[in-house]
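Severity: low
Component: inverse-folding endpoint
Summary: output formatting inconsistent between runs
Steps to reproduce: submit the following structure tokens with default settings.
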């Protein structure tokens, strides 16, 4: 069995929801990443979706303090939109997470397992997914 090596972590909106709920697993994962020199990254579009759908914005802010929020530039927007069209979905935040994970060779911490795996397969990205 071979293990796919990833260069970092990308958080999806599910990771933000888990943090807002005070989920111990996401906080332990986050602390472990930081203590090992890994700065998780999250697309700005996903941050917006997290704040839109979660009441505990204070906990989201705590998680984001230890992450890199990547701006949603025109190239990422184009790739995300094209991927969403190929997946026949309007879940732009999930597509932005996969686009970022593919581009930066990262594992993903998220909820939408089936959708994320399908999108990753379309890109030829061997998805390493930590479900929250």
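Observed output (run 2 of 3):
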């Amino acid at each position: 069995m071979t293990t796919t090596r990833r260069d970092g972590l990308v958080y999806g909106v599910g990771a933000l929801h888990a943090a807002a709920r005070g989920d111990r697993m996401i906080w332990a994962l986050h602390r472990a990443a930081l203590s090992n020199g890994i700065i998780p990254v999250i697309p700005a579009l996903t941050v917006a979706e997290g704040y839109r759908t979660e009441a505990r914005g204070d906990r989201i802010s705590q998680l984001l303090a230890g992450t890199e929020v990547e701006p949603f530039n025109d190239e990422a927007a184009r790739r995300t939109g094209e991927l969403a069209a190929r997946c026949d979905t309007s879940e732009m935040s999930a597509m932005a997470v996969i686009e970022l994970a593919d581009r930066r060779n990262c594992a993903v911490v998220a909820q939408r397992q089936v959708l994320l795996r399908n999108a990753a397969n379309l890109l030829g990205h061997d998805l390493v997914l930590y479900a929250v």
